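Researcher: We plan to redesign the surface later, but first we want a full-length starting point. Tokens attached.
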């Protein structure tokens, strides 16, 4: 997937960088896998705004994604590679031999016509799903489960990947893209390959209107607000606002909010690298 730059024919085109949709094969999603997606506009059930800078944007329908990959030993053929407005990665439509259709996160290198399989003895090919116990050490993986049968909850965004480092007893050691190294049960499933659309991070929208299309409203700086709206607001003239903190008064910029007695700490061997 290539990156396109534009001639500055308008102010919005001047700095715009877009990705071409060369590997997207259709613009019509599978209707049986679409469900309505309601929008809150950042308001709760009483109508009070609880999340700022959210609202508007183009209508979307949610695509039902198969994160569990529990159709074991049933091969499927890739029918289409599609754009998904609800996530950064592309998705692939699978046609199973028993007639069922499902969407999965499309890995890099998956093309229309290829066959994928979810099984303990599946070939080590892109798009196939196996338990961590059956994967060779050093394999690049995505769509990783944390609990067996839960469905993938890690490594799902565009361009991300993890690497299987070692196995010891009932646990496998996996290095995540952040640099974190953690233990995961070997009975958990993972899919081979890295997530598609790695060029997503190179996109530059070029204009404010594009953010509005995506449902992102303007962000007002805390120091220019009133004290009733933000702890850093108020005061005469320009000022720093004091110690950086969020709307609820929790310190920002490096303040650790993770529970020091969190149960999953024992599974984390090495913390993520600091940027």
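Model: Full-length starting sequence:
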């Amino acid at each position: 997937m290539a990156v396109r730059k534009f001639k500055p024919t308008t102010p919005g085109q001047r700095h715009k960088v877009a990705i071409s949709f060369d590997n997207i094969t259709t613009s019509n999603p599978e209707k049986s896998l679409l469900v309505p997606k309601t929008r809150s506009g950042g308001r709760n059930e009483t109508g009070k705004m609880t999340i700022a800078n959210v609202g508007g944007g183009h209508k979307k329908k949610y695509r039902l994604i198969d994160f569990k990959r529990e159709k074991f030993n049933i091969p499927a053929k890739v029918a289409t590679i599609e754009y998904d407005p609800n996530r950064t990665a592309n998705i692939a439509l699978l046609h199973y031999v028993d007639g069922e259709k499902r969407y999965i996160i499309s890995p890099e290198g998956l093309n229309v016509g290829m066959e994928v399989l979810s099984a303990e003895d599946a070939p080590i090919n892109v798009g196939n799903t196996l338990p961590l116990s059956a994967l060779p050490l050093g394999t690049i993986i995505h769509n990783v489960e944390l609990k067996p049968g839960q469905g993938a909850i890690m490594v799902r965004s565009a361009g991300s990947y993890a690497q299987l480092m070692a196995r010891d007893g009932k646990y496998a050691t996996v290095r995540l893209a952040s640099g974190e190294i953690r233990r995961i049960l070997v009975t958990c499933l993972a899919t081979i390959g890295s997530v598609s659309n790695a060029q997503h991070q190179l996109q530059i929208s070029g204009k404010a209107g594009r953010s509005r299309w995506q449902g992102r409203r303007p962000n007002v700086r805390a120091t220019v607000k009133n004290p009733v709206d933000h702890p850093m607001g108020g005061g005469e003239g320009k000022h720093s606002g004091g110690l950086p903190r969020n709307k609820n008064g929790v310190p920002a910029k490096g303040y650790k909010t993770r529970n020091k007695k969190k149960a999953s700490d024992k599974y984390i061997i090495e913390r993520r690298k600091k940027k």
